[in-house]
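WP5 quarterly update. Target: Nucleosome assembly protein. Source organism: Eucalyptus globulus. Length: 269 aa.
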Amino acid sequence: MSNAKDNFNVADLTAALNDEDRAGLVNALKDKLQTLAGQHSDVLESLAPNVRKRVEVLREIQSQHDELEAKFFEERAALEAKYQKLYQPLYTKRYDIVNGVVEVEGVTNEAAKEQEEDKADEEKGVPNFWLSAMKNNEVLAEEISDRDEGALKYLKDIKWCRIDEPKGFKLEFFFDTNPFFKNSVLTKIYHMIDEDEPILEKAIGTEIEWYPGKSLTQKLLKKKPKKGSKNAKPITKTENCESFFNFFSPPQVPEEDEDIDEETVWQQN
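Structure tokens (predicted):
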């Protein structure tokens, strides 16, 4: 695993959400594509000699194209790595400003002087920076419920980290101490199929350690007992609900092809 911590921007998270929807489709099609590959040689043998020769030349052209494309992806990866290192000092400065570690030049002390009697309540940094950034993205805004906002106000930073073995990347969400869960870091790891443009194979999220009664991914329903019932206490049950924090509990992709409903897979694409 690479130790280099790279920047995260909201577009990265949006792309990650979209990639998850394709994981089931990829696994469902793996075996099918392998079967079709085995049929290619039979099709080639059935062609007339002159046509077969032309097809063989076309395949060679495609092979040359694939070699160039492989070099393109290799050079692009090196270029991305170069600029991630150049970006890093900027991300460190952003973190320090957002979380009030440092003060920016040009900020006057007038407000502080006016509030000398109430310095303890003075806000540092940029409150709710990441919550605001995420809500300004159309895709992410739909994932964030009103209940989620209270917890996301404690979000201090988000980092992106490349993974070498297996290939993929990791998103890390750093939280301040909060009344919702114990975790200081929530992680989402993506394993990618590195064939030309990477495609998501599977995702693994952190198990959130919710404090009692604070889970944002479940809600408690209470139902009054029927009249005349011997049990006068309300009936309660727990039900899953929509929440941004479901992001850390991705659906598991079946290992076996027969476990996937073909119609459902195509609808997810």
